[in-house]
Amino acid sequence: MNEAMDALEARAHRQLERLRDLADRMTAVRVRETSTDGAVTTVVDGNGALVDLELSGKIAELSPAEFEQTLVSTAASAARRAFAERGALVTDFNEEAAEDHK
Length: 102
Description:
Layout: H1 2-27, E1 30-34, E2 40-45, E3 50-55, H2 64-100
Antiparallel strand pairs: 1-2, 2-3
Helix pairs in contact: 1-2
């Protein structure tokens, strides 16, 4: 019985470490995206929240509506990539967990 408890405890510790690793990796997700014209660069985190914004001198060539469209589309593209990256992390985690249960 002691061996079974030791094995169960070891498995629980491995799962906890994998969960912590997943949380750390998801927190670390950052995606940088630059508009095709180079006017706007955005950086978003794994939740799609804007964490950095860089504007080049090219924004002077844009109308307010063009600037708005460029900013929103660039940030949205970065967010889609960040969500895909997080999704891949979760998929990898789930596949490892499934292998551990075999």
